[in-house]
UniProtKB/TrEMBL annotation, chain A:
Main localization (coarse): membrane
Family matches, as PANTHER family: ABC TRANSPORTER ATP-BINDING PROTEIN (PTHR30482:SF17), HIGH-AFFINITY BRANCHED-CHAIN AMINO ACID TRANSPORT SYSTEM PERMEASE (PTHR30482)
Name of the protein: Amino acid/amide ABC transporter membrane protein 2 (HAAT family)
Entry keyword set: Cell membrane, Membrane, Transmembrane, Transmembrane helix
Compartment(s) where it occurs, according to its Swiss-Prot or TrEMBL record: Cell membrane
UniProt topology in membrane: Multi-pass membrane protein
Keyword Membrane: yes
Stretches that traverse the bilayer: 6-25, 30-48, 54-77, 84-108, 114-132, 162-179, 213-238, 250-272, 292-315
TrEMBL record, chain B:
Keyword Transmembrane helix: yes
Name of this chain's protein: Amino acid/amide ABC transporter membrane protein 1 (HAAT family)
Membrane topology: Multi-pass membrane protein
InterPro entries: ABC_transp_permease, BCAA_transport_permease
Keyword Cell membrane: yes
Keywords of this entry: Amino-acid transport, Cell membrane, Membrane, Transmembrane, Transmembrane helix, Transport
GO biological process, one term: amino acid transport
Highest taxon listed in the record's lineage: Bacteria
Any one GO MF annotation of this record: transmembrane transporter activity
Listed transmembrane segments: 12-30, 60-82, 94-119, 139-158, 179-201, 221-249, 256-276
Length: 339, 290
């Protein structure tokens, strides 16, 4: 078992290393920007996977954490001087606010049925969108606002895009290994057990609520950090970060990539971001591509019905089956020999 | 005083519209444990179809009937295409209905164009009555009347007909109803269609009041309907009426004094209910929220 984990770790590290090398071969602005989007949304989708995939909690307002992160860092850098201190304060405020909101949503509804958390987060997200639009003196309403980042030291400033690319990539890799450690810990096992059968976990003497609230808070904090990275990478914050489209993106990435796998959502983020990019360039060909939310919505519905395990989940199931068959074949051979 | 009465009438009229969306939602949930996140989209569809049919035929009544028909058809399609394939899996059900909501809202733009659609009132419902100092806008009184009639109608059907009996029994214990040889699926499809039609009717009734229809209104009203259902108690029709009036009135009064806070006040109302009475104001036996 340990050997197996190590092998997959090597694979992930190798892929990460290739991604580090990538901008030295292909450094067009649009491509770097797209990859940064993949990394930030990869983090965002992983935080979603913690809820949906590992614990079986459905959130329809995940965009609100993303938006909280983006607005926190944006407003603080806008109001205070563009220094590293204010950037750090922005990140801390984002994490605190994200954690606080998910804590409140969690203690209010996680003791009830799934539906309640989904409804409450949907309603809360629309309230945050509403506040961002109306509280013009702070958020600049639906126009959004740009802000300045602190100067990077020396040569890094000349290659700002590559620096941000590396920073987001490193963050994604760190968060990925951190969350994988979390899901493989005893806490993670309990979460999966809760997803599979809540009643049984309870009868084993565990209190379910604290676990669910903890994971909801962790997911909220990670999601708002993804929002921070997003805001930093485009140096602009607008109300679109609170839109339902962002939540739909997280859902699509998680489900298409594979729920409960952590690496799946990252792959999903890659697929969806590149699909966004190429679909929007197809808008000249036919108007239906401008309405990409229809396409994504239909893909999403079909994926939920026919492809619920996602890419990584399906591959894992296939591998598992093959391994099983091998073992069975071995056993049959052994049986034959014995007889 | 005049102001207070006007705000109250406005709030009650809005409450009736919330009720029309929420009662279908709450019955569907009570009966089958399905929370239909695409329910709000039917409100928007009803609004658009209502305006369109009113424009074409120049009869407001036909507009309303067209909206109801659209609701019935879309409800049937939702049940057969979206809900049925993922029967018995709650997580998939919740996930899929949200996707359908977004698709339905976008389809509206494809069918009727992406622009805001203007709506008008029929001549005989335009204008207002005045009683001394108080002026009552005719159309709002009309919405209240329709809402009340529908509430009374639903309660009568639930209490005094065989179908109503089956629905009430199904809410309490659907396995038992099935064991008695009743095809609960047919009943469920029926309730789903009627609930969707009521939401569509609500949309068609709403737009002449506001003057405009837009695709995102489905999501907005859908969220209000969820709040109403949480406050009123899952599965309870009288609960959703009381909660809808509460939400409508608080929104109307708050909207007059601090228009930016009207949504926040509704949220606070929901928080209070979730903290102190998570089962909602009216609890229905057989429907659990745990």
């Amino acid at each position: 078992m340990i050997k197996k984990i190590q092998r997959s770790t090597w694979i992930y590290l190798a892929v990460a290393f290739l991604l580090v090398l990538l901008p030295f071969f292909k450094d067009e602005r649009w491509f770097l920007f797209l990859m940064i989007q993949v990394f930030t949304f990869g983090i965002f989708a992983m935080s979603y996977d913690l809820l949906l995939g590992y614990t079986g909690i459905i959130s329809f307002g995940h965009a609100m954490f993303f938006g909280i992160g983006a607005y926190s860092v944006g407003i603080i850098l806008d109001r205070m001087e563009a220094s590293y201190t204010s950037l750090l304060i922005g990140i801390l405020v984002a994490a605190l606010l994200g954690g606080l909101v998910s804590f409140i949503a969690g203690i209010l509804t996680l003791k009830l049925k799934n539906h309640f958390y989904a409804m409450l987060t949907l309603a809360l997200a629309s309230m945050f969108l509403f506040i961002a639009e109306k509280w013009r003196s702070v958020t600049h309403g639906s126009d959004g606002f740009t802000f300045r980042l602190p100067e990077l030291p020396g040569p890094l400033e000349d290659h700002r895009n590559i620096t941000i690319y590396m920073f987001c990539l490193v963050m994604m890799v760190l968060i990925f290994f951190g969350l994988r450690r979390l899901t493989e810990s005893p806490l993670g096992k309990i979460l999966v057990a809760i997803r599979e059968n809540e009643g049984r976990v309870e009868s084993l003497g565990f209190r379910i609520m604290p676990y669910k609230v903890i994971i909801s808070v962790i997911s909220g904090v990670v999601a708002s950090f993804a929002g921070v990275l997003y805001a930093i990478s485009i140096r602009f914050v607008g109300t679109n970060v609170f839109a339902i489209d962002v939540t739909l993106d997280a859902l699509l990435m998680t489900i298409i990539g594979g729920v409960g796998t952590l690496v799946g959502p990252i792959i999903g983020a890659g697929i969806i971001e590149f699909a966004h990019h190429y679909l929007s360039s197809l808008a000249d060909v036919h108007w239906i591509f401008e309405r990409w939310i229809i396409l994504f919505g239909i893909v999403y519905i079909l994926a939920v019905i026919f492809f619920p395990a996602g890419i990584v989940g399906t591959i894992k199931a296939k591998l598992h089956k093959r391994k099983h068959r091998k073992i069975e074949a071995k056993q049959q051979n052994a049986d034959k020999m014995a007889s | 005083m005049e102001l207070i009465i006007n705000l109250a009438i406005n709030g009650i009229a809005m409450g009736m519209l919330y009720f029309l969306i929420a009662c279908g939602l709450t019955l569907i949930f009570g009966l089958m444990d399905v929370l239909n996140f695409s329910h709000g989209a039917l409100f928007a569809w009803g609004a658009y179809v209502g305006i369109w049919a009113f424009d074409v035929t120049e009869s407001f009544v036909i507009g309303l009937i067209a909206a109801i028909l659209a609701g019935l058809i879309l409800g049937l399609l939702t049940e057969l295409i979206i809900i049925k394939p993922v029967y018995g899996n709650h997580i998939q059900q919740i996930l899929i209905t949200l996707g359908f909501m977004l698709v339905l809202a976008e389809l509206l733009k494809v069918v009727f164009g992406p622009d805001i659609m203007a709506a008008s009132r029929p001549g005989y419902l335009d204008g207002s009555w005045s009683f001394g100092d108080v002026t009552v806008i005719k159309y709002r009184a009309f919405i209240i009347l329709i809402g009340l009639l529908i509430f009374i109608g639903i309660m009568l059907v639930l209490k005094f007909t065989k179908v109503g009996l089956i629905v009430r029994a199904g809410v309490m214990n659907k396995e038992m109803v099935q064991a008695l040889g009743i095809n609960i699926r047919l009943v469920f499809i029926g309730v789903f269609m009627v609930g969707s039609a009521l939401a569509a009717l609500g949309g068609a009734l709403f737009v002449p009041n506001s003057g405009v229809a837009y695709a995102e209104m489905g999501m907005e009203f859908g969220i209000y309907a969820f709040i109403v259902v949480i406050i009123g108690g899952m599965g309870s029709v009288p609960g959703s009426l009381v909660a809808a009036l509460l939400v409508g009135l608080s929104g109307s009064f708050m909207g007059y004094y601090y228009s930016d806070l009207s949504m926040v006040v509704t949220m606070i109302l929901m928080f209070i209910i979730l903290i102190f009475r998570p089962q909602g104001l009216f609890q229905v036996s057989g429907v659990s929220n745990k």
